[in-house]
Amino acid sequence: NRIKMLDHNQETIARKIDGGHRIISGPSGSGKTIVLVHRAALLMQQKQTFKRILFVCYNITLVNFIKRLLAEKKVPLGENGVEVLHFFELCAKILGEPVEWEKEEVAYYDMVIEEALKKAKDFPEKYDAILVDEGQDFSDDMYRLVVSLLNPATNHLAIALDDNQNIYQRKQTWKELGIHARGRTHKL
Predict the structure, then answer these.
(1) CA dist 48 to 44, 45, 89, 117, 181, Å?
(2) Model's pTM, two decimal places?
(3) Nearest Cα to Cα of residue 57 among 83, 94, 31, 81
(4) In whole angstroms, how far apart are CA 143 and each of 42, 149, 158?
């Protein structure tokens, strides 16, 4: 049951819920996902402020792991709790149509992201808090999409990433993507 326990550093990071944007980085196995799960649980305790919480990751198999960790912490899932989606599931929700999760050409996914970005501006549902896991797997446009779904009144965004596995080399700075995390990055 070691997995559910946070060390002091992780707990400090999980508890920093003063809004704004944060980036949590660390190598694989450093507990980034666990920190986000704890953060989600803490946000749910402030339900009057954070009514809609999105927990988004890239990997389909990670979704079930995150849901299990949240359920173990008695965090409600779904529309009235924490919505856990992998990125292309989120795109499907925005587009209102099914999206193939895997085995498609890169061009297909680029088009899905592009279409979702166009529709996201008018997407009625904004999230009071968005937690991004596996942030190293998100492209600039994927981040633009996520940021566009954030409620500007609460403006709570936390991104966990592994600096050592940067699949997409960032072409733009975080700030250019609408992510203002200067002085709010934490290393695990």
Answers:
(1) 9, 9, 26, 29, 25
(2) 0.89
(3) 83
(4) 24, 10, 12
Residue 81 corresponds to which tokens in the numbers above? 């709790």
CA angle 31, 150, 96 (to 5 degrees): 100
Length of the chain (residues): 188
List the chain pLDDT tens, one digit each, 188 residues.
344 567 777 777 767 656 689 999 888 888 899 999 999 999 999 888 899 999 999 988 999 999 999 999 999 999 889 999 999 999 999 999 999 988 889 899 999 999 999 999 889 889 999 999 999 999 999 999 999 999 999 999 999 998 776 655 666 788 888 888 777 777 87
First to last CA, the chain: 20
- Indicate left, alpha or beta for 138 from its phi (over 0: left) and psi (-120 to 50: alpha): beta
As given in the structure block, the two tokens for residue 157 are: 């965004």
